Amino acid sequence: MGVVHRFIGKDGAFAWAGVEVETYDQGGAMGGSKQVLLGSRDGSVNFGLRYFEIEPGGQSSFDQHKHDHGVYILRGKARVILGRDVVEVGVGDVVYIPPNEEHQFENIGGEPLGFLCAVPREIEEGNGP
What is the phi-psi region of residue 87: left when phi exceeds 0, alpha when psi lies from -120 to 50, beta otherwise? Predict the structure, then answer.
Protein backbone atom coordinates (compact mmCIF):
# COMPACT_ATOMS: atom_id res chain seq x y z
CA MET A 1 0.00 0.00 0.00
CA GLY A 2 1.21 3.49 -0.79
CA VAL A 3 2.16 6.11 1.78
CA VAL A 4 1.43 9.84 1.96
CA HIS A 5 3.44 12.28 4.09
CA ARG A 6 1.40 15.48 3.98
CA PHE A 7 3.20 18.80 3.69
CA ILE A 8 2.82 20.64 7.01
CA GLY A 9 5.36 23.43 6.50
CA LYS A 10 4.44 26.93 7.68
CA ASP A 11 5.97 30.38 7.50
CA GLY A 12 8.60 29.34 4.94
CA ALA A 13 9.59 26.12 6.74
CA PHE A 14 9.49 22.88 4.78
CA ALA A 15 8.16 19.93 6.81
CA TRP A 16 6.12 16.77 6.26
CA ALA A 17 3.92 14.82 8.69
CA GLY A 18 5.65 11.75 10.11
CA VAL A 19 9.10 12.78 8.87
CA GLU A 20 11.92 13.48 11.34
CA VAL A 21 14.19 16.48 10.84
CA GLU A 22 17.82 15.41 11.34
CA THR A 23 20.92 17.55 11.71
CA TYR A 24 23.12 17.35 8.62
CA ASP A 25 26.68 18.26 9.60
CA GLN A 26 28.82 15.26 8.60
CA GLY A 27 31.79 15.38 6.27
CA GLY A 28 32.32 19.13 6.39
CA ALA A 29 28.67 20.06 5.89
CA MET A 30 27.66 23.24 7.70
CA GLY A 31 24.26 24.70 8.54
CA GLY A 32 22.15 21.85 7.24
CA SER A 33 19.24 19.55 7.98
CA LYS A 34 17.91 16.41 6.28
CA GLN A 35 14.53 14.71 6.09
CA VAL A 36 14.06 11.22 4.59
CA LEU A 37 10.72 11.71 2.84
CA LEU A 38 10.44 8.25 1.27
CA GLY A 39 12.49 5.18 1.95
CA SER A 40 12.59 1.71 3.43
CA ARG A 41 10.29 2.62 6.35
CA ASP A 42 7.63 3.45 3.74
CA GLY A 43 8.14 0.19 1.85
CA SER A 44 10.18 1.71 -0.97
CA VAL A 45 12.08 -1.01 -2.78
CA ASN A 46 14.10 0.95 -5.34
CA PHE A 47 14.71 4.53 -4.23
CA GLY A 48 14.86 7.02 -1.40
CA LEU A 49 13.75 10.64 -1.56
CA ARG A 50 15.34 13.11 0.83
CA TYR A 51 14.92 16.83 1.48
CA PHE A 52 18.04 18.79 2.43
CA GLU A 53 18.06 22.36 3.67
CA ILE A 54 21.21 24.47 4.01
CA GLU A 55 21.25 27.85 5.73
CA PRO A 56 22.76 30.96 4.07
CA GLY A 57 26.55 30.64 4.03
CA GLY A 58 26.34 26.88 4.65
CA GLN A 59 27.35 23.97 2.46
CA SER A 60 26.86 20.26 1.93
CA SER A 61 29.69 17.83 2.41
CA PHE A 62 32.19 17.46 -0.42
CA ASP A 63 31.22 13.96 -1.57
CA GLN A 64 31.90 11.25 -4.10
CA HIS A 65 29.68 8.13 -4.23
CA LYS A 66 29.41 4.92 -6.25
CA HIS A 67 25.73 5.71 -6.97
CA ASP A 68 24.16 8.41 -9.09
CA HIS A 69 21.46 10.74 -7.85
CA GLY A 70 19.13 13.50 -8.94
CA VAL A 71 18.56 16.84 -7.23
CA TYR A 72 15.64 19.26 -7.67
CA ILE A 73 16.07 22.77 -6.24
CA LEU A 74 12.93 23.92 -4.39
CA ARG A 75 14.21 27.14 -2.83
CA GLY A 76 17.28 29.36 -2.74
CA LYS A 77 20.43 29.59 -4.85
CA ALA A 78 23.56 27.46 -4.85
CA ARG A 79 26.99 27.15 -6.31
CA VAL A 80 27.43 23.47 -7.20
CA ILE A 81 30.74 21.72 -7.72
CA LEU A 82 30.31 18.93 -10.28
CA GLY A 83 33.67 17.33 -10.89
CA ARG A 84 35.84 20.14 -12.29
CA ASP A 85 32.88 22.39 -13.13
CA VAL A 86 31.23 24.99 -10.90
CA VAL A 87 27.65 25.94 -11.79
CA GLU A 88 25.11 28.26 -10.18
CA VAL A 89 21.60 26.83 -9.77
CA GLY A 90 18.28 28.09 -8.43
CA VAL A 91 14.61 27.29 -7.98
CA GLY A 92 13.32 24.79 -10.52
CA ASP A 93 16.75 23.63 -11.69
CA VAL A 94 17.50 19.90 -11.79
CA VAL A 95 20.99 18.49 -11.24
CA TYR A 96 22.17 15.01 -12.23
CA ILE A 97 25.23 13.71 -10.39
CA PRO A 98 26.74 10.61 -12.03
CA PRO A 99 28.48 7.84 -10.09
CA ASN A 100 31.89 8.74 -8.65
CA GLU A 101 31.66 12.46 -9.48
CA GLU A 102 32.86 14.81 -6.73
CA HIS A 103 30.13 17.26 -5.76
CA GLN A 104 29.14 19.89 -3.23
CA PHE A 105 26.31 22.42 -2.82
CA GLU A 106 27.09 25.84 -1.32
CA ASN A 107 24.26 28.21 -0.41
CA ILE A 108 25.05 31.56 -2.04
CA GLY A 109 21.71 33.25 -1.37
CA GLY A 110 20.12 35.09 1.52
CA GLU A 111 17.52 32.41 2.25
CA PRO A 112 17.73 28.69 2.99
CA LEU A 113 18.69 26.43 0.09
CA GLY A 114 16.22 23.55 -0.09
CA PHE A 115 16.39 20.60 -2.46
CA LEU A 116 15.03 17.12 -3.04
CA CYS A 117 17.57 14.37 -3.60
CA ALA A 118 16.61 11.00 -5.11
CA VAL A 119 19.00 8.09 -4.49
CA PRO A 120 18.99 4.28 -4.61
CA ARG A 121 17.04 3.01 -1.60
CA GLU A 122 19.93 1.14 -0.04
CA ILE A 123 21.74 4.41 0.67
CA GLU A 124 18.69 6.60 1.42
CA GLU A 125 19.93 7.34 4.91
CA GLY A 126 23.40 8.29 3.80
CA ASN A 127 24.66 11.64 5.00
CA GLY A 128 25.31 13.66 1.85
CA PRO A 129 23.42 14.66 -1.22
Answer: beta
